[in-house]
Amino acid sequence: MRLVTVTVRVSTMDMIAVRRVFLSLALCASAVLPARVWAQGPAPTPLPEENAPKTVTVPYDDKLSRLAEVLGSVHYLRTLCKAENGGEWRGRMQQLLDSEAKDEPQRKEQLTAAFNRGYRAFASVYTDCTQAAIVAEERYRAEGATLATEITSRFGN
Questions:
Q1: In this structure, how many other beta carbons lie within 10 angstroms of the beta carbon of residue 100?
Q2: Would you list the domain boundaries of the chain?
């Protein structure tokens, strides 16, 4: 068998046509291939940060959150009706935050959000001190007292 050398001259115009055909075939092939072929592998799981604040969950957090919401509602209603010691309830909320979530910013944030939610719930309904607002404030104070008693009797030291 004998090897023969062949010389082919290709013009620039021929190369452009070849590139177009190649790109067309590549485009068709990419459309036909399943997506998993092109998909990336699973993302690496992030490593836990050592400096991230620890999330502490205590068994009475839901009741405590409800108590904070009640305190916010009572604070708004007492201030609205210009009751004696209207600002006392915000102070009690601060005491609650200091004793329960002093070094836990995430819990402090959750309890503060609950207080604000309770405050805003009544701010959107009552703009004047009405008999219904007074009744609501009395009921919420009773609920708050019940919650405080339940929490301390069940989980207190």
A1: 19
A2: 61-155
Cα distance between residue 38 and residue 29, in whole Å: 12
Q: What band does 25 get if pLDDT is binned at 50, 70 and 90?
A: very low
At residue 48, what are phi and psi to the nearest 5 degrees? -65, 140
Q: How many CB atoms lie within 10 A of CB 80?
A: 19
Characterize 123-154 residue by residue with b for buried, 16 or more Cβ atoms within 10 angstroms of its Cβ, and e for exposed: beebeebeeebbebbeebbebbeebbeebeee
Closest of 22, 100, 30, 28 to residue 67, by C-alpha: 100
Provide the residue type at 103 as one letter. D
pLDDT digits (tens, 9 = 90+) for 144-155: 999 989 988 887
pTM of the model: 0.62
What angle do helix axes 88-100 and 61-80 make, rounded to 10 degrees? 160
CB atoms within 10 A of CB 76: 24
Residues 6 or more apart whose CB falls under 8 angstroms from that of 144 comprise 67, 70, 71, 74
